[in-house]
Amino acid sequence: MLLRNQTATVVPQITIRVFNARLKLFIVEFKRYFGKVMYLIKVIEFQKRGLPHAHIVFALHPELPISAIDDVVCAELPPADQPRLRQLVQQFMMHPADHVFRANGTLNESSRCQKDGECCYGFPHPLNETTHLDPFSQRIVYRRRHEEDHMIAQYSPVLLLLWNGHCHVDIAVSHHTFVYMFKYVAKGPDTAEYRIREETQHDRNDAESVAARNEHAQAKIAEDFIRARYLSATEAAWRIFGNELTHKTPSVQRLAIHD
After folding, report:
1. d(Cα 37, Cα 135) in Å, to the nearest integer?
2. Ranges for the Helitron helicase-like domain (predicted)?
3. Burial 11-40 (b: 16+ CB within 10 A, else e)
4. Which helix (H) or strand (E) holds 217?
5. What confidence score (pLDDT) does residue 207 get?
6. Helix (H) and strand (E) counts in the chain
7. Would strands 37-46 and 52-60 be described as parallel, antiparallel, or unpaired?
8. Which of 172, 198, 246, 259 to pair with 34, CA 20 to 30 A apart?
């Protein structure tokens, strides 16, 4: 239990136990609601801010027809008569508008999600009257009929209410999902760049400007910076508790038939 003004990153041993317990319950409830799962692939990722999140692929049997997708996955703001779901969507599933546009309506090129003048997450999404398969991208284009739906990431109402946090859901119709998943399996740990040097009189001199120090650092960046593994306290606690970072069901065992 967190104390007042205490964040989850302060007590990683509690954070990972709660996350792991909730994730197990989430998978159990997913199977109970959606029925038979042919296989499951799960990857746990930790970013530099510390908190864990999971990438999960479920293969359902029978497969979900496109006509039934709107009953399972939604990309629209719920109506006012569903206040709890509406509040969760507004809190967890809406991409911040200021990450794309400034207050005056111009493109926010300084945002971390902007690349070559476009949002790398695809926001704002175009409006669509129906959910359909895009034959060019081989991705599902979800129904978004109102202006307020531009910035909403697709979600499952049932799973969002269950998880009570960010829970992005997509229907996979091509091999790109597996490329995306196994990229996380094989990409290795996070890394950080840092510089180690002795403190000089210039560093202690308040008269030295920040710009001068930055210029000096840039001049020596090639020789001063070391690329190293970055392990957050939360990931360290996850590993100490013996929790798995990847999981596949059913498991696959390679047979050495050609040895």
Report:
1. 27
2. 5-57
3. bbeebbeebbeebeebbeebeeebeeeeeb
4. helix 210-219
5. 44
6. 8, 9
7. antiparallel
8. 246
Kindly state the tokens that stand for 21: 């317990």
Element (H, E) at 8: none
Tokens 């998978």 correspond to what residue? 27
Distance of alpha carbon 151 from alpha carbon 93, whole angstroms: 8
The answer to whether 15 touches 8, Cβ cutoff 8 Å, is yes
The secondary element (H helix, E strand) that includes residue 211 is helix 210-219
Task: Tell me the C-alpha distance between 102 and 109, whole Å.
Answer: 9
Question: What would the mean pLDDT of 111-132 be, rounded to a whole number?
Answer: 80
Higher pLDDT, 118 or 22: 22
Residue 90 parent element (H or E): helix 83-92
Residue 235 to residue 250: CA distance in whole angstroms: 25
Between CA 116 and CA 86 the distance in angstroms is 33
The residues, ordered by sequence, that sit 6+ positions from 112 with a Cβ below 8 Å of its Cβ are: 99
Q: Which pLDDT belongs to residue 197?
A: 63
Contact in structure between 57 and 177 (CB atoms under 8 Å): yes
pTM of the entire structure? 0.75
Q: What Å distances lie between residue 235 and 3, 44, 74, 225, 246, CA to CA? A: 22, 10, 32, 24, 13
Q: What is the mean pLDDT of residues 119-144?
A: 85
CA angle 33, 56, 31 (to 5 degrees): 20
Angle, alpha carbons 174-177-178 (nearest 5°): 105
